[in-house]
Design goal:
Layout lengths: L2 E5 L2 H5 L7 E6 L18 H18 E12 L2 E2 L4 E2 L1 H12 L2 E9 L24 E8 L14 H9 L1 E2 L16 H10 L5 E4 L6 H9 L2 E6 L2 H15 L7
Parallel strand pairs: 1-10, 2-3, 2-9, 6-8, 9-10
Antiparallel strand pairs: 3-7, 4-5, 6-7
Helix pairs in contact: 2-3, 5-6, 6-7
């Protein structure tokens, strides 16, 4: 099993990667909601944001193997009082133009958003807000969906819940990153959509949660992170995971 971590811009680094070298990409990009990522601009004009998304989705398509898969996490619906949109639907559209095929969508509840105080016009039809706490995992593929034979490690209960499209995920307790997703999310994706010894890419590594999932399940991992602080956190967490026993089959 190999772990390769890169500090830098994901576009620059992916452009150095060989074609058709990755089995699965599991990632969650910046949400473009003004989250404080140590000074990184997270509130671009939507046209600029989605143009940038198209650029890195195209690179993911290039580096994936002919039957490679892509699990992309984002909000189903989100925004502010003046700018509201449905990012996953737009990202699916962009991905299909690039060449990806749509397979499905899994939904999970971000419990960090369930306690809210933004209702818009309180008890009035004037301008109420619909606040959706749900994130979705858009599942795409390159080429055929069937990837053939290999060694799987997903358990019966996980498989049954995963195929239902509604995922009950444990909350994330690691708060070293402003927008962490729970370990159970990439763990489920890795086990559901790849075999043991597959190569997994996360171009927005953050605090390294996808890398931890890969190490624990015997997958090779390639992680890219632009921020030095989060890169150091990811590097530490993945090294700690490498010192622990792997999950049993």
């Amino acid at each position: 099993m190999t772990v390769d971590l890169y500090l830098g811009d994901c576009l620059d680094i992916m452009r150095t990667m060989p074609d058709k070298s990755v089995d699965l990409c599991v990632t969650s990009p910046p949400y473009n909601l003004g989250i404080d990522y140590n000074g990184q601009d997270d509130y671009l004009d939507l046209d600029v944001y989605f143009k940038w998304c198209g650029d890195w989705i195209a690179e993911i398509y290039r580096v994936l193997k002919p039957n490679g898969r892509f699990a992309l996490n984002h909000y189903l619906s989100c925004g502010t009082s003046t700018r509201r949109y449905a990012p996953l639907f737009k990202l699916n559209e962009l991905a299909e133009v690039i060449g990806f095929k749509h397979h499905g969508l899994a939904v999970w509840n971000d419990i960090t958003l369930t306690k809210r105080t933004a209702w818009g016009s309180w008890l009035s039809a004037s301008a109420p807000y619909i606040n959706s706490p749900y994130e979705g995992i858009l599942v795409l593929h390159k080429g055929e969906w069937n990837i053939g034979k290999g060694v799987s490690d997903i358990e019966k209960d996980e498989f049954m819940e995963s195929t239902s499209g509604v995922w009950k995920l444990s909350p994330e307790r690691n708060r070293e990153h402003p927008a962490p997703f729970p370990l159970s999310m990439p763990m489920r994706c890795v086990k559901m959509f790849s075999f043991i010894d597959a190569t997994i890419l996360d171009p927005f590594m953050g605090s390294g949660t996808t890398g931890v999932a890969c190490v624990q399940t015997g997958r090779n991992f390639i992680g890219i992170e632009i921020d030095p602080t989060y890169f150091a956190i990811a590097e530490r967490r993945i090294k700690e995971a490498q010192m622990q026993p792997r999950l049993a089959l």
